[in-house]
Amino acid sequence: MDKDKNNNSSKGRTEEENTRTTGAAMGGAIFGASIGGPAGAIVGGILGAIFGEVANDSKKDGGNKNG
Known about the structure:
The chain is mostly helical. The chain contains one helix and no strands. It has a domain at 14-58. The model has no long low-confidence stretch (mean pLDDT 83).
């Protein structure tokens, strides 16, 4: 089984992108649960996943634009 040099999954995403999105969703869920209980965990997880995707997009677009 050949692995792509960028370690792409079957959907064309790298392992780094998957890890970033998963970590952001988990962090958002934990933060949301600590503030709003079970409902906060759901909302926080969804928002975390969205923020993770935004971070992935900014990395692809050369998102080192500070200022």
